Structure formats: C-alpha cells, structure tokens
C-alpha cells in the first residue's frame, strides 16, 4: 500500500513537471512569434511607404511667403499717374518675341466687380476677380476642374500673338498639383464663349500648352495641336523646373503663331519653336484656360491670370520705319502709371535697335502716348517720361547713340481708339517712332 502511494506521488510530480515544461515552451513560442510579427510589420511598413521619412522632413521646411488675395477694393487712395524719372530697363536676355501689329483684345480686369467672373466671360467653375496684396492690378482666380472662356470672338488670322501673366501660388503637401491648359480653338460656326466649348476644347482645330506644375524639380511642359479630334502635332515632354522659382510671383507667357509655325516663351526663355505645329485653314478665334483636378482643395491653391492681350498680323517694324517713316507699337509695356519698362518689351526694343544699326542714316523721334485715365497734365508728363525711358534703353542697353534720338509726349491727345474699353485703352498706350 505504501509502495503504491509513493508510486502515485512520483507520477503526479512527473506529470506536473511535463505540464510546466509544455507551458513554458508555449510561452516562449508565443514570445518569439510576437517578436517575429513586430519585425515583419516594420518591414511591411518600410516597403509600403519608402518616402515616409522624406515626407516628414518636407513638412518641417518653412513655407515661402505667398501672395494674399482679397475680394475687397483697397481702402488706400486710388493710384495716380506718377511723374518719376525713367528707370533703367531690366530686360530678358535673348528675348525675340514681338507682338502682332494690331492689338485686338486686352483684359486686365480693371473695373470688374470683385469676387465675380469677369463680364462677358463664361465658365463651368468658380472664377473670381480679386486683388493680390503683393502685386498691382486685378487678377482672375481660377478654381480646379473648370474651363474659363473670354466671350469675345478674336478672329486672329494666320499670324497672331497671345500674351498674359500667370501667378501660381502652390505649396506642396505631397500631392500632385492640377495641370493648367492654355490654348486657342477655331470654333467654326460655334459662337465664342458657347457652353459647348466648356465640355470639350477641340473645334475644327485647336492647340494648347499643358503646364504640369511640380515641386523639387518635377515641373513638366508639353505642347499639342489637334485637327478636329486627331492629334496633329505633339512636342516631347519638357522638364522645366525653372518655373518653380516663380511660384508666388508673376510669370509672363508669350505665344507667337505665323501660319504653321508656333513659338512660345516663358519669362523670356524660348520653350518651343516648331515650324509645322499648327494646322492650316480656318481661324483661331477662342482663347481658353482649363484647370484639371487634384487632391488639394481650392482653398489650398492659388492660380491667377492677368494682363491678357491678343494681337493679329505679323510684325512689320522694318518696313514701317524704313519705308513708310513711322512705326507705332503697343508692345513696349510699362509698369502701371510709371515710366518703368517691363522686361517683356525686350523683343520690340531689340528689333528697333537692329533696324537703326542697319540704317545709320536714320534718326528718330520717340513719342509717348497714354490712355485718358487721370489728368491731362499727369498724362502729358508720363508720356514724355516713357519716351525718355525708351531712349535711355536704346542707348544704354542696345548701343544706339543718343544724338540720333529725340523725345516727345502727347499724353492722351491723339487716341487711336475710344477709351471706353480696356482694349481701346491698351491701344492708346503706345510708343511711336517717327523717322526724321
């Protein structure tokens, strides 16, 4: 009996030890599995989001100061035309763009209601005229996923130019920015500004520049033209990280069409020069701006356009000045109410200088003209100062002797168009060269 009791006790002890060993083994195995799962989870996270560290560091970078918009008119007194002395020309290097001979459309949104789409424009989105605290004048803010159409039929002809300023207020939060399309359409019998153009931008023929804004050097450009819906010409994708340096300030875009040839400049850089880019026949008559969509809200982006001008006809500066003895241009541009020449005027000034160098016997009188805004005395003084600025630029930048140039100012006394529209005012703001 005693032996049986001892045997049972021994068996129970062995059973307890085995159970305890099994428990410890299971506990050890679970601990090992937990460590393995944690390691695998860390590996999976690294594979799924290899840029997580870059995104965190990007978020730590300070943001640039961007233009602030307001839809309220400024409370400061209205600007008056200044009588300051001419300032030195800051020109684009090697910029050979010359606007068309006849200005047919100009829009700087002056006099438009703040917070509203400009009068005569059509859109399927929310566009609004606004002011920016860092820049003068009015600007059209364009929201995403929308098309914006001036309602005027432009009837450009075979030779024409398009110019405008654009401000991109963009700060990356890790998403791609919306693409921006700017182009022209030959609408045929469809009226300019028609609702059907908001749906598709093809027409009989069309062309557009596609700006794909990026960050850290990822900005790309592409130009394309269509005949109906068929691709007629498409340029290679061009990397253009230079544009990112202009975020938050105006970039000037200029397009020149001469029959089939198309040339395009951004801030003085020639981006495209394609001799067979445009289909012949029919007339481009509808300008359009289109903004695609993105993961950003409209409040996180700012896309603005202003100072739009369209001119028709090939430049005829040489013949006008040498043979006819007189050349007038609205292509020499000045800052508002000042005699400071804008850099995009460099192409016209360079061509005038070339003609004068090739014809050393020709002397000229440079005559400034203004629109009718402001007082007669201020306009007279401003027109003389602007003529002086042009003379100084031709002498100091382009090497034309000052003894070959005289200056005069006519203020608003010799208009070539009514001062009732922005296009008429832009036509009257001109510089005339008269052979002596």
TrEMBL record:
Low complexity bias: start-end ranges: 60-84
Positions with biased composition (Basic and acidic residues): 46-59
Gene3D superfamilies for this protein: OmpA-like domain
N-terminal signal peptide: 1-21
Gene Ontology, cellular component aspect: cell outer membrane
Domain of life: Bacteria
Protein known as: OmpA-like domain-containing protein
Source species: Mucilaginibacter hurinus
């Amino acid at each position: 009996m005693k032996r049986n009791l001892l045997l049972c006790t021994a068996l129970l002890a062995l059973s307890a030890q085995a159970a305890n060993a099994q428990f410890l083994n299971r506990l050890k195995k679970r601990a090992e599995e937990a460590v393995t799962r944690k390691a695998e989870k860390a590996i999976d996270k690294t594979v799924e989001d290899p840029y997580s560290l870059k995104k965190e560091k990007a978020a730590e970078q300070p943001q640039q100061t961007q233009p602030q918009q307001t839809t309220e008119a400024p409370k400061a007194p209205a600007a008056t035309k200044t009588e300051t002395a001419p300032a030195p020309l800051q020109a684009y290097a090697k910029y050979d763009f010359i606007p068309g001979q006849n200005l047919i459309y100009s829009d700087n949104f002056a006099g438009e209601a703040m917070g509203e789409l400009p009068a005569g424009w059509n859109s399927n989105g929310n566009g609004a005229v606004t002011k920016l605290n860092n820049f003068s004048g009015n600007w059209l803010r364009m929201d995403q996923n929308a098309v914006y159409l001036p309602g005027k039929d432009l009837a450009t002809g075979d030779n024409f130019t398009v110019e405008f300023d654009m401000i991109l207020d963009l700060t990356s939060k890790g998403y791609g920015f919306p693409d921006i399309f700017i182009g022209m359409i030959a609408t045929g019998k469809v009226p300019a500004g028609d609702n059907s153009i908001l749906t598709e931008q093809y027409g009989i023929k069309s062309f557009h520049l596609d700006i794909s804004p990026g960050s850290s050097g990822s900005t790309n450009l592409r130009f394309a033209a269509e005949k109906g819906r068929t691709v007629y010409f498409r340029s290679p994708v061009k990397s253009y990280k230079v544009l990112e340096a202009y975020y938050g300030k105006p970039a000037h875009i200029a397009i020149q069409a001469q029959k089939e040839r198309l040339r395009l400049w951004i801030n003085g850089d020639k981006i495209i020069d394609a001799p067979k880019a445009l289909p012949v026949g029919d007339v481009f008559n509808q300008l359009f701006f289109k903004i695609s969509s993105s993961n950003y809200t409209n409040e996180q982006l700012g896309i603005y356009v202003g100072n739009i001008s369209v001119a028709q006809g090939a430049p005829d500066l040489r013949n006008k000045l040498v043979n006819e003895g007189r050349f007038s241009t609205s292509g020499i541009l000045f800052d508002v109410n000042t005699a400071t020449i804008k850099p995009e005027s460099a192409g016209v000034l360079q061509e005038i200088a070339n003609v004068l160098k090739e014809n050393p016997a020709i002397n000229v009188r440079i005559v400034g003209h203004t629109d009718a805004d402001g007082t007669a005395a201020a306009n007279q003084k401003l027109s003389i100062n602007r003529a002086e600025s042009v003379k100084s630029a031709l002498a100091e930048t382009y090497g034309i002797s000052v003894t070959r140039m005289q200056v005069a100012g006519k203020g608003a006394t010799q208009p070539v168009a009514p001062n009732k529209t922005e296009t008429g005012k832009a036509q009257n703001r001109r510089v005339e060269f008269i052979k002596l």
